[in-house]
Amino acid sequence: MTDDQSVRVPRRGRHRRPDDDDHQITELTAIDQDTILTGRHYFPGLADLPLLGEDTPVPGPPPDGDEELRPPLAEPLPGGPAPVRSRLGRNLPAAIGVSLVLGAVIIASLLTYRPSFLVVVLVAVGYGSYELVSAAGTVKAKPPVVPLLVGGLAMDIAAWYRGPNGLVVGLLVTVCGLVVWRLADGAAGYLRDLSASILVLLYLPLLAGFAVLLAHPDDGAARVIAFIGTVVCSDTGGYAAGVLFGKHPLAPTVSKGKTWEGLVGSVLASGTCGLAIMTLTFHREWWAGALFGLAIAVTGTLGDLGESMIKRDLGLKDMGRLLPGHGGLMDRLDSLLPCAVVAYLMLSGFLDH
To answer: How do residues 304-328 score in pLDDT, each as one tens digit?
Structure first.
């Protein structure tokens, strides 16, 4: 190796910051007389290689020229099989299991004692707000946690007892509280922290409040199940179609996993589900169900892309690690939250008139 040669050090993507104990990251030191080059290479088994000399080849980039070398998706446990992973790198059995458990909790709360669904929403809003505040910290934003949590929970409680007016009044009061509370920390970063706080407030407690409004009428359990069931069908249809047929990226600058084929699968699956629910459960026209399914598919996709844009801007792969196979709680709520608004408006229009 000569002085004008160098070791190509691949750049790591912004999707996940490596942990301190990441065993796939190994320091590589190339020693050639007076030249010492150090870099971080993601290469399995690199720790077992001898020190590099003139005759020792340096691992280069992958054959396709991709500048990003990723660690293996999973390491098998000693004496056990490797976890089953999807094409998108998720632990598929864990993701399915978590979804079934969450669905069972929601259905049980709706069918046993409907006001307990409000408790489920409040828990989700509280923990989701914690995830969003933690994520905002990566860009040095510091939303005031106390007024954000108290006001966000109060908004959804007001939505249950006072309807849409209570939700809007709770939002306005909470925004005023955030403006005043943040004054105590001085002018430095005031606009940044307040903007992040209002984003969290609008994104989570406000949108979740429409799910509370869905559950309040006498047939609220059926409305919430119809809303969540259609979103699940949209996500499942989009995932299956994307894995099997996905070739044309939908928004490559935002999410490389979204394809036009997946969007078609979402529309077909959610449209079929909406048609069945609207005709068999609510006894309305078939076209109302098809329109409902179409709106859910489009809104869910936009919600997913919106959260992907937030994570990309923050340099995060997931919002957290609470749910195996999904990531954080917000990674599961990304499509549900905006769809709650659409479901409330459309079901109210179809069923209340």
So the answer is: 999 999 999 998 888 888 888 778 8
Other CB atoms within a 10 A radius of the CB of residue 305 amount to 17
Q: Could you give the CA distance from residue 323 to residue 98 in angstroms, rounded to a whole number?
A: 7
pLDDT bin (cut points 50, 70, 90) of residue 195 is very high
Residues in the chain, total: 353
Q: Residue 253 contacts by C-beta under 8 Å, 6 or more apart in sequence? A: none
- Tokens describing residue 93: 């059995």
Cβ atoms 154, 201 nearer than 8 A = no
Compute the distance between CA of residue 69 and CA of residue 271 in angstroms, rounded to an integer.
40
The DSSP element (H or E) to which 35 belongs, if any, is: strand 35-42
Q: Which residues, at least 6 apart from 226, have a Cβ–Cβ distance to it below 8 Å?
A: 274, 277, 278, 281, 282, 343, 347
Cβ contact 7:39 at 8 Å: yes
Counting Cα atoms < 13 Å in the Cβ hemisphere of 199 gives 16
